[in-house]
Amino acid sequence: MDDMWTLYISLAALLIPALTCLLAVSSLVCARRKYSHLPSPKMSSRFFGHYFDIKREREKGIRPGQNPPDGLLLKWASDIGTLYILFLVWKPILIVLDPEDIQKVHMNRLHPKPKTITTIVGDVFGQRASLRSLFVLQDYSTWHPRRKHYDLAFSKSYLTGLVPTFDRCCEKCLSGLKPFADGVVQVPMKRHLLKFSQNTIWKVAFACDISDECDPTSGADVVPVGTKVFKAFQDKLHNFPFQHFQFFHPFECEGYRNAVRTLRGVGKECILKRMKVLDDGGEVPNDILTFILKSATTDSAVDIETLLDDFAIFYLAGQETVGNTLSLALVLVLQHPEVLERLLAEIDEVLGSRTSVTAEDLEKLKYTEQVVHETMRLYSPAGFMVVSKESPPGGVTLSGYHIPAGTHMATHPACVHRMPQYFEEPDSFNPSRFDPENKKPSPFIYFPFGVGHRMCIGMHFAMVEMKLMLCRLIQAYDITLPPNYKLIVVEQFIRQSHDDITCTLVPRK
């Protein structure tokens, strides 16, 4: 009897892997046949498809002036056209780079967010992160009412009234730099700007003050927590479609889960405190958190966990994208003295000897806005596969090709922004290309915040924050990069410098 069980176990040990491999190969063959009518770059592996091409490009791609894996994607676009299919093993990804196709993809409400995005940011190795947040919801009828409700809190007119609060957050960051502004101490500017973006979100969006050391509830510094959660998203994206194999690294996965738990724990305490004030009939600020809570009363499908999903994604997107984009803008300005000179001239003209910035001042800082836009053109915050949609039932036609239903369609802004047919000298830093006197680029050619009805809800929030901080920072300090500094940008779910951008500062006279 024991011999029979041993035989059965041995057979199962042989058959299960064999059947699994057979199923994987069958899925792969079916996917390749399904998309055989579409242009596709040459694959380096028949089984893995373009997986290792992308992976190698990311690993070797830490170099000045190039966003991995954009160089490879642009080369393929140059070789075979602006629409082509990639195979990451069994998972097909359609790259869409033509403006007309991008318009079709993003302006059609029938095109939902792809399931891939939910897989990447919905949970972190079993720990819920943003499973039902606005960012990942697929069903338009569920997504639209909640988005419409939140839009009021993110509208340009509403945020204009909060400019004094944004300005106080800038002042707090600049004051924190004063002890180090002696021209000798190496100041990690990226860390300070991430801290600034964190403080601004807490103050403006959630009406909470946060000290330099800790968050308002748990006593823990949540900047590294947010960064770690984004690192988890990055690892899942970079290992896609093998992201679940990271369970074989239990300590690393547990660290990621702890980061998500900490972030959601901070959010839960903040939400429960506000809910108690509302229940007691107390006065509450008309901020983003209040709008989030009001959505729970108008939508029975929104529970505390869904509120935390939105809380987490608002916080993460706001901290990481703004802090890192500001860091990149600072480097680019310092590396181009003519841009710095023009920026200072505009600041002097608009503000004079004043340091505080009003909403009226902000509207006049046109060149400052051009610098921010040009930074986002060169280094679009969103990484590979993030700005994407899924083809609807029945499929869709793009560039004359039928795209089957359920296809992940990636409209990659970082590639489109560097295509010479859309931007002259695309690799050069030239804020004047966004001068109001020049023709405004099409929203399907320049779309760092996405485009269409799923455009980033925090676009106006981010622009106010970045314009204000860049203006105040350049006005307050004479900042110097290390000699021969080279900006190296990496893709870690979003674009950022690979280092902390250490600089020396002295107060500007």
Q: Would you identify the regions where 5 or more consecutive residues have pLDDT less than 50?
A: 61-66, 211-221
User: Treating each run of at least 4 consecutive H or I residues as one helix, how many helices?
Assistant: 18
Beta-strand proportion: 5-15%
Structural class: alpha+beta
Largest sheet: 4 strands, mixed
Name the shape in a single word. globular
User: Average pLDDT across residues?
Assistant: 86
Distance between the termini: 91 Å
Structural write-up:
Mean pLDDT is 86; it is low at 61-66 and 211-221. By secondary structure, the chain is α+β, with helices and mostly antiparallel strands. The strands form 5 sheets. The protein has a 4-stranded mixed sheet with strand order 1-2-9-6. The protein has a 3-stranded antiparallel sheet with strand order 5-13-10. It has a two-stranded antiparallel sheet with strand order 3-4. It is built from 18 helices and 13 strands. It is globular, with a radius of gyration of 24 Å. The protein has helices spanning 2-34, 51-60, 70-80, 99-107, 115-121, 140-154, 156-160, 163-177, 189-206, 223-238, 250-279, 288-298, 304-334, 337-351, 359-364, 366-378, 413-416, 459-476, and strands spanning 83-88, 91-96, 123-124, 127-128, 187-188, 388-390, 396-398, 401-403, 408-410, 477-480, 489-492, 494-497, 502-507.
